[in-house]
Specification:
Layout (H helix, E strand, L loop, with lengths): L8 H64 L6 H4 L2 E3 L6 E3 L4
Antiparallel strand pairs: 1-2
Amino acid sequence: MRKPALVDATACSRSTWATATISRATFAGLSDARSAVNFNRSALRTTVAAKNATFKKLRKRMRDLIKELDFLMARDDPRRRRFGLRRACGRKRFRTRWCR
């Protein structure tokens, strides 16, 4: 029967301990990074939703302004250009340059 080789027990435990410590630190850093990404992704979603809602209100106000200007000014009034309005192709109403 063969005798087991003598192994330095302190050397093995030190390397195992070092590997475990490095793994724990790496995992903690990765976990913190994932949490930060998820938090920022959620914050971005909230900000974009607020921006879209505000932009929707702004477009409605612009439409209302154009309707009011249609009511108050003649169609050939040169002041319309100052508001950034132009005649839409084939339509009697005016549109802004920003319409899609």
